[in-house]
Amino acid sequence: MDCWYRQTDIVHRHPEWPKLPVSLRKTNPIIDIGRWTTFRITYDEDTVDSRRFASLHEALRDFNIEIKDDDEFKVDIPKVRPVPVIWDVCDEPEGTRSASAELMGDSYVLLPFSIRYQLEVCISNGFISEYAATNEAFVHRLKDIEERKALALLEHVATDKKVYWNPMEIFDILFPKASTRRKIPAYCCMMHATTVTPTMVYWDTPSMEITNRVIRNFSQYSDRFLRVRFKGEKLEGRINSTNHNTMDEIFTRIKRTMSNGIKLGNRKYEFLAFGNSQFREHGAYFFASDSQIGAAQIRGWMGEFSDIRNIAKYAARIGQCFSTTRAIYTCSVQLQRIHDVTRGAYTFSDGVGRMSRFLAQMTQQELHIKTPDRDPPSAYQFRLGGCKGMLVLSSQARGQEIHIRPSQEKFPAEHQGLEVIRWSQFSMATLNRQLISVLSSLGVSDSIFHQKLQRMLSSLEEITKDDKAAMSLLQKYIDPNEMTLTISQMVSDGFLVVQEPFLVSLLSLWRAWQIKYLKEKAKIVIDGGACVLGVMDETGTLQGFSNEKIQNIGTSHEDRLSALPEIFLKVYRADEKRYCVIEGVCLLARNPSLHPGDIRVVKAVNKRELGDLKDVVVLPQLGDRDIASMCSGGDLDGDDYLVIWDQDLIPEDWFRTPMDYTPVKGVNLDRPVTVNDVTSFFVNYMKNDCLPKIAHAHMAWSDLLPRGVEEIKCIRLAKMHSDAVDYNKTGQPAYLSRELRPRKWPHFMEKNYKPKDQIYTSKKILGQLYDAVDRVDFYPNFEMPFDQRILESGIVVKDELVEFSKELKVSYDLTMRRIMAQQEIRTEFEVWSTFVLNHANQSKDYKFHEELGRISKSLRDRFQGECYDKIGSRQFEHVAPLVVAMYKVTSDEVTAALVEFHSTNPSPDLKPKINSFPMISFAWLFPDILGRIALRYFEDSDPALVNPAVDTQATELKAGKETGGVKIDQDVEKVTTLITDDLISLFDDLLSEASLEQSLENQMIEEDANLVEDEADIMPSAIDSLQNMLHDSDEDNLYDP
């Protein structure tokens, strides 16, 4: 047991100290543990000669601390005590009420809050020392220069991560002029954030985030919201739960932060609430109240929660308002309440309602959602007032109707606007360690897993060499952000054939990313499978689960087949270029699956009544028990379900008994819940949340014990895991008992900090798969030349656009570097594609992939918006010259950097350092337009774009003749033939789409006039549209290359 008691502060404590807010500046420190990194201990001569001093030397050597004799070592002892710090100059003196610097004397300099905040970012992260910046000239200089320039300067320091021992040197920084406008998409905000550790407060540069309901409603106060995360010290990561009191001081500090707030300058941020995902990652929102509004008023606006007496449920209901959503403004909704489908103790419709096709189309148009057949998604995960869950496309809902069930209504609220979290779409099916462990225990042969692993590794080897193989794989291995479809389209546009450096780097990254998760998670992609949202069969045509049928089952295959519950699944198959209904025996599961009964065997059937539902798995409303709850305790309020129809993975036993996932009942108070109750629950959750420990214990025991997940210990851990998952809803923690804590760990779990005698080499399937995969490194390919099809396209580019592109690239690169720094991501390729190899671990990998998808999309939307604003149009003929300019500017930067690098590094083995090389993702803000330019789907319809002097050269390039040292193969060119019937169909589609766009135009609420000024003229003429659609029949269609 650890006998060291963690400490967070060593200060002179006075009676008011426990009531003070937390801040970077310590109050009356004896030792500032988080900030002081060098200590001097003095001894008199008698002590130096003593035996005890010699023992101290030996102890230091035991900890590999080197001792040197240095007679010339000098210490500059400050003459002034206490030693002055920058806060003495820029913080309001205690007890002063006036905000006027003149009334406080010359020693106090009032900085604008944006500057004061960014200064704290630099100080807290160690780029500027609070002791070195005490010179009043430094603070006066910051105040005297223009605010936006001072802000840009400090943001540059934070992004560059260079330490300035003399802070005055930052004013000598030379960096190119950039676009200083902070124009962001209307659905985003610049969010302030901080991380509170046991000894420190680290502030982050404000970053662009998609908003939630609360921040949208109080947008005028958006700079007063603060996202707070509680973590261990920088090298420790997450604060883990503990049964001992050695960590009590850390949890006391967290409670003090949530009770007393966080102070920065003249603002005090107080606890507001936390979103449900945020809660699991130990985060919360704080708000800096002023005379106009406070945190209590904001909570009062969210809804009526006074009837909820369970603390955990109270916090969860408030958390609904903080889900990251996109608000739908195009039309209001009409609510109708319908009954839940219940049978016995089970609710078959738990979390799912209905919506009209009209509303689904309006939502699709407003969010610019693309689907393979242009139909609206079949289901949306939503928030609406106090309602949550899923809305499924239904003919029973008409006009602007939404049908809500009681299981979806969580609390009453005045806010009635529709908000969308995500929508139904196809994603690849993957195995993982838990699924493989369960399937192996159920009898699936080890050789099956090996075959699928080797097939996947072989396929990944071909992606940078063969464009057809790359496209095929990218269209199968579709990630939740659908970035593989974007990359597939880039391959289809010929960028792999010409070895374009950005695309080749993306493919290398994607391969490294896939192999990383094969090694660490056994994440094997299954071609015959899908990961989709689950919904209920509203028609009542699917057969449900029946205990009677299972008890009376015969031995024949037909008898077993007839006893299976039915599902409906219709998914888009890229290789067939159409939607296909899956039929036959399938596996149905959710992640994580730990119990032998979590993976259900079902029968997929074709039902004409359900044919309109695509990229969702439809579960029956009939039977003795809902299938969703059998799958690891799932429901239909937004859960993803894994469906596998690969017959190699179907176990022989189809009817394993599912686990009972009835949650533990929570405790209700006999009084209203208070904010103090909520903050105490937050701290107790951190202290008692042992979900990761339970999951790891289950994996270790299932590998060590002969019967795997069938062992009693594993069954107990599976139940305990379920209770731990529900902790945030019930308030009842799960405790990992001593006998269930593993004493041996398999090597594939990489418990490198454990003693060697506790690690063994696993011989089971997970150990075999781990040993069969070797990690690969990723390094971007900077040496390959940029695509001559773009550089020599013949499109006329004005000097004005080149200069604008240079300025915009500086701003883009700074924003990209800021995202990389905040998320601790190594390269821009990972941010752009969302295939991240390593990150700050602020959330689980699968959640982070989705979160980064939103960040990456908002980054593109922001800078695409600036481009549209510059040229005043979204039409191809107006955007294309700017896109070429952006590509040329990037190419010139990289070429110049390579020339400089090779002139100083003649060795061919040396490669440029990634962090010091120009960024190139800026050139790919418009990949679809680059594809049209590369394939010259413009020269006939847009002759005004082309410079006649180079048109002949471009035509030769297109034909495959060598021009400028680059040869393009004939198979790059895409030939599109539109017969008469197709033209008529396309024209009808355009007229229908134009009609819908006109309806949207009439109803659009302009939340940000600057960002939507071009929306009123989205639809071009029918003829222009047909010409644009020659590029894959739809310029933006990524599904049909």
Automatic annotation (TrEMBL):
Domain RDRP core: 196-773
Source taxon at top rank: Eukaryota
GO BP: siRNA processing
GO molecular function terms noted in the UniProt entry: RNA binding; RNA-directed RNA polymerase activity
Entry keywords, A to Z: Nucleotidyltransferase, RNA-binding, RNA-directed RNA polymerase, RNA-mediated gene silencing, Transferase
Residue ranges of every copy of the RDRP C-terminal head domain listed in the record: 800-935
Keyword RNA-binding: yes
GO cellular component: nuclear RNA-directed RNA polymerase complex
One family name in Pfam for this protein: RdRP_head
EC number: 2.7.7.48
Recorded catalytic activity of this chain's protein: RNA(n) + a ribonucleoside 5'-triphosphate = RNA(n+1) + diphosphate
Protein family membership: Belongs to the RdRP family.
UniProt protein name: RNA-dependent RNA polymerase
